[in-house]
Write a structure and sequence with these properties.
With about 475 residues, the protein is mainly alpha-helical. It has 19 helices and no strands.
Length: about 475
């Protein structure tokens, strides 16, 4: 117990420093850009860079130590107790000012909606608003109509103060994160829901990226939890609606749609399929009528702006390695040849992911007694493999969706361990910003290493008496 309190005290001190530093940096950055200064994406100097990134990694490391401690077994007995244990960290995450510029893109899109513009047709960088000077985004919006509702509601307060609008939007993110914790509490069975819910609410990556950073992925997590809850309760029409809600928030849930459709076909849930078809047709007609009236608007949801760009991924690691070799005159390739090689690599990785995806679809169709729990597990693995193998542009907050999957299946220790370490490696992206080689290597290699070592370790210790991991799987 003394060790547990020591970890909590250290975590609180680090969280206070991180929240205060982020707030100071964010407000200084806001005033600097408002006065005509040049935009910068994340850190203003090396002091801020090291202070924030090291404290983030330290906080996540303390969290891992606490998560795997035995005292987490009987952490809380009800959701109110979970909130009482986590409220100070939730408050600090809410106070912390967003680190990046995405929140300004969100509010800028909201202003476009309020004034009759269409962010799916008009490039954000070409639209003038009070926040134009904060926006560093030349393409149309990649965030769906459901996300736009939150952006628009928050943008109503820009006329009073842009800072107020930022915190109004952050209040939505905080509320959604707490809602997600409550939905997880309701979804899981009694033996593990207390420890998992508390660990989910306190996960530093979720707090840093979904609450402090105010990334819209928190809404995708909500739709995912509703989707899983609907599948386990056999509310299949509701599951399809949750899928659409996710896709209308951000693009990722489109990857889960064929898996769910194949599952419904395999189980002969024809009524649910017909209802899902009518619901989907209704969504398409309604959205095409005004919000997404052109094919280019629908294409905007697929984020075409990152095509040919590489960050924290296998292609990014290869590109950084090639650049190092070219500088040392050890790689006789022109820039054009290098781009061609990278394009072929991306194509190969995409094909590899496609084969893995097809194998999952075949398993859904052919496996006897394939249950909704199997579907949820396969959706989680598909998402994890997509991020680690076939995503060329990988941001730290993408891991938050994998962590949500882990929380929804706490008796999947291998996935849980891999998701946790993916969260750690993603939090380390800030530390290695400016070094694309190390950033990509750490982000991808750590979870892959844990995946293989964890599989070997579980095989060695597996016995009939062990039915679930001794620690939280998130």
């Amino acid at each position: 117990m003394q060790n547990h309190r020591g970890l909590a005290n250290w975590a609180l001190l680090v969280a206070i420093y991180l929240s205060a530093t982020l707030t100071r940096l964010g407000l200084e950055k806001f005033d600097y850009i408002l006065a005509g200064g040049q935009k910068f994406a994340t850190f203003s100097n090396w002091g801020n860079h090291l202070g924030i990134s090291l404290s983030y990694v330290l906080l996540y490391s303390l969290y891992l130590t606490w998560t795997f401690s035995s005292q987490l077994q009987n952490a809380v007995t009800d959701f109110k107790a979970a909130l009482q244990r986590s409220w100070i960290f939730l408050l600090l995450a809410f106070i912390a000012y967003p680190l990046g510029n995405d929140v300004y893109i969100y509010l800028h899109s909201g202003l476009m909606n309020l004034r009759g513009g269409n962010p799916f047709l008009t490039p954000l960088g070409s639209y003038a608003s009070e926040l134009f000077q904060f926006v560093d985004w030349g393409q149309t919006s990649t965030y769906g109509p459901l996300s736009q509702l939150l952006f628009t509601a928050s943008a109503l307060f820009v006329s009073i103060s842009p800072l107020l609008a930022v915190y109004v939007y952050k209040s939505f993110c905080l509320g959604l994160h707490i809602l997600n914790g409550y939905l997880i509490w309701k979804q899981l069975v009694v033996p593990e829901r207390g420890k998992v819910t508390l660990a989910y609410l306190l996960n530093p990556l979720l707090l840093m990226e979904q609450v402090a950073g105010a990334h819209i992925d928190v809404l995708v997590s909500t739709s995912l939890i509703l989707l899983v809850g609907s599948l386990t309760r056999k509310w299949y029409t509701a599951a399809v609606i949750a899928l659409w809600a996710g896709f209308l928030s951000k693009t990722l849930p489109i990857v889960w749609m064929p898996l769910v459709l194949t599952f419904l076909c395999r189980k002969h849930h024809w009524k649910a399929l017909w209802q899902a078809g009518f619901v989907s047709l209704g969504f398409v007609i309604l959205l095409s009528w005004k919000v997404l009236p052109e094919l280019s608007a629908w294409r905007s949801l697929l984020n075409p702006g990152v095509a040919g760009q590489y960050l924290s991924s296998i292609p990014a690691f290869v590109m950084a390695s090639m650049n190092e070799l070219r500088q040392l005159s050890l790689l006789p390739l022109s820039v054009a040849q290098q781009k061609a090689w990278l394009a072929q690599l991306v194509q190969g990785l995409t094909i590899g992911f496609g084969l893995f995806y097809m194998a999952i679809l075949i398993r859904i169709w052919r496996k006897q007694n394939y249950l909704s729990l199997n579907l949820i597990a396969d959706m989680g693995w598909v998402t994890l493999v997509l991020f680690l193998l076939a995503t060329s542009w990988l941001m730290p907050w993408y891991a938050s969706i994998v962590i949500t999957f882990a929380a929804l299946q706490p008796r999947a220790p291998l996935f849980g361990m891999t998701a946790l370490i993916f969260g750690l490696s993603s939090s380390m992206q800030y530390l290695f910003q400016g070094n694309p080689l190390m950033r990509s290597l750490v982000t991808i290699s750590l979870p892959v290493l844990v995946l293989f070592l964890g599989k070997y370790w579980l095989q060695q210790r597996r016995s009939p008496q062990v039915s679930h991991p001794p620690t939280s799987a998130i």
